[in-house]
Amino acid sequence: MDRWRKPSYEPVLKKGVTSLSEKHSLFWGDLHNHNAVGYAKGSLERSIDIARKHLDFFAFTGHAHWHDMPLMPGERHLHWVRGFKAHREHWPKTRKLIREANDERFTAFLGYEWHSSIFGDYCLIFPEDQAELYLPDHVEMLFDFARKTGALAIPHHVAYKTGWRGINWNYFSPVITPVVEIFSEHGCTETDRAPYPMILHSNGGRQTSNTIDYQLGTGKRFGFLGSTDDHFGYPGAWGEGITGVWADGLSRKAIFEAIRSRRVYAVTGDRIRLEFTLNGSPMGAELPPVPKREIKVAIEGEEPVKMIELIKNGRVIRRYFPEDNCLNHDRFPERAKCRIQYGWGPWATLNLERICEWEMEITLNRGFFHGVNGCFQSGPFSEKLRDKLELKNEQTVKLSSFTSRKDAYLEDPTKSIVLDMEAPADAVLAVRLLKPSEKLVSTKLKSLLKDNVVEFTGVFTSESFIIGRICHPQEFTAVVEWEDEGETRAQAGADFYYIRVTQHNGQMAWSSPIWVETAASVAGEGIGKDRRPG
Question: What are 385-425's pLDDT values in tens digits?
Fold first, then answer.
């Protein structure tokens, strides 16, 4: 079994801070991804194999139907037509493979993606096996089917213009759609000015009124997911979006219950641990009117955290900068994180495009590794090659991987791993490279406080790797407590709060919101139990 162990420690929380980890565990998954069972690349068997190696759960959501697809120049719409045909013909085998992928350590869901220019794209995710591949021509019919089967209907790239496959919010159903995608390889849909603009596809940019923050402001209630929408058959590809779920187990039932309760959050790539409570209730909760709101946040990043923000009703009302509170930053921390990044290589203009295979062993002569996380992007595509990361023992990590400039996501020709370790300052971190060339590089951990190590694997145009600077716990962990009083909404509705985390390397996380009813919402129609998800 080459699935690596995740860090086993818990964040250092202040006494009295409510931690979701006391009731629930954190699981990582991807609920929207593609392969050749549709019009993307790679076998479903490969997708399942990759998902099992580094995720806790996933749903395969093959391209299934586009009832109002326009005709395209040169009959390019046939690309979609052929993909839909492949998906229909494979459906019995898809069901079989998804069923067989489930065990006590991994959960797989059956699903498919339904496209619409008018209504937007939805991923149907089923709680159990589903024989019928239902492909209606109206979103209300899709919602009726979801109600009948207990499925989730999760909208995708919602911020595109309505009519151009952006969501049509007039048909929003909080019971069928308790969560929406805030981030995927299409970009970020939080606001029209958020980082990660939607520039990779032909659907245009972000329409303000279709963005997440705008629609929360209208009174709609939903949680946040991150999903890759990867088309290289690589579920959970780094940088394209994945989801953290706080659940009481890894069964289908437990994951579904957590999603319906909106105990979920989105990250761009780095697996930022995020806990958020308001008056002791977790993300996704709806609270009665209360004048005093006690907010508690605990985070743990993979790199130094630049900023933690509390958003209330679309506005930032609190900010916390962990580096402002870093004491003894120059003192070796013993607990530390370190990123090893590898790749680069010759650029395309030299006509030296190649896939470079990597084999390396990373060791500590003193101390131990708590765990290691892989940051593997989907490109380049290869049906047979795999990224393999293994924590052999407490002092040894083994990595097999491959990189290329060609087909690299966002033209990033690198991959990386994040080491989580505990060791004294004079401990030696050694990287023994076996491929693409043989080399041994070692350094004392204390030297990584001030400088990184950059090494090349050969002559100019060859690949290289970097042993990054040590990341101090005071840089990548934080526990924050804020207090907010009073209502700010004059109209009926509820105040909504959510957390946004940004690391210095640009990786981000968004918690699902928590809602606090206002007196106006209780006195009037408000948003009662009938609008709670599930």
Answer: 999 999 999 999 999 999 999 889 998 999 999 999 999 99
What are the pLDDT digits (tens) for 207-251?
999 999 999 999 999 999 999 999 999 999 999 999 999 999 999
Cis (ω within 30 of 0) for the bond into 436? Answer: yes
Structure tokens at 150: 């207990």
Measured between alpha carbons, how far is 390 from 361 in angstroms, rounded to an integer?
10
- Which residues have a Cβ under 8 Å from the Cβ of 447 and sit 6 or more positions away? none
Please check whether residue 321 is in contact with residue 306, taking contact to mean a CB–CB distance below 8 angstroms. yes
Query: CB within 8 A of 108, min separation 6: which ones?
Result: 48, 51, 57, 58, 59, 60, 98, 99, 101, 102
Cβ-count burial 19-42 (b if 16+ within 10 Å, e if not): ebeeebebbbbbbbbbbbbbbbbb
What is the per-residue pLDDT across 307-351, written as a single tens digit (0 to 9) for each? 999 999 999 999 999 988 776 666 778 899 999 999 999 987 888
Cis ω for the linkage preceding 174 (within 30 of 0): no
Q: How far apart are CA 520 and CA 517, in angstroms?
A: 8
Give the number of C-alpha atoms closer than 13 A to the C-alpha of residue 247, restricted to the C-beta side.
Answer: 22
Q: Count Cβ atoms below 10 Å from residue 289 Cβ, excluding itself.
A: 16
Residue 28 near residue 302 (C-beta atoms within 8 A):
no
* Residue 375 DSSP one-character state: E
Q: What is the pTM of this model?
A: 0.93
| Max Cα distance, the chain (Å) | 73
Least confident of 64-73, 159-168, 394-403, 487-496: 487-496
| Burial class of residue 348 (count of CB atoms within 10 Å of its CB; 0-12, 13-18, 19+) | exposed
C-alpha 518, offset from chain centre: 32
Label residue 523 by pLDDT band (50, 70, 90). low
d(CA 276, CA 18): 9
What's the full length of the chain, in residues? 534
Q: Is the pLDDT of residue 303 over 70?
A: yes
Q: Is 156 within 8 Å of 227 (Cβ atoms)? A: yes
